[in-house]
Amino acid sequence: MAELSPPAQYEVRATFRAPLPFVFRWCTDYSPEDPTLEKEKFERRILLQKGRKVVYEDLTDTGDGWMWSRTAVTLQPPNRWHADAMGNYRTWSLDYELRSLSDGRTELRLQGVRRATALGKNPPKARLERELRVTWANYAAALERDYRASTREA
Fold this sequence. Notes:
The protein is α+β, with helices and mostly antiparallel strands. It is built from three helices and seven strands.
């Protein structure tokens, strides 16, 4: 049996030009359209979205086979949520925390531990953190566009 790589810890920060309550609602409103916001090609299926619990599955065709994961999210309003993901290539334990900044912006701090499985190994830390920053920059652009639209409607 192949030796699994040790768990790797990651931390990423992102800033949004929107107030914390809007950012929390937006970030925790999981949807099958999320891959479009990330500018990625995978399928997301929401299995449960009730109260403070969300469960979804992601499926990606890698060319070498399917990459699958199921994520269980526990919302901790007003500014936190936790996610545990298990999949055929990796498992994740992720903590998300929002903090209001003095100028009306909101900062997200994401900390996670990722474990590889027998099918995949952890990518280099710098590369994965860079990919996560790009993902959150894509989310920020969509979130800020939605926030601007919501303030025009009010």
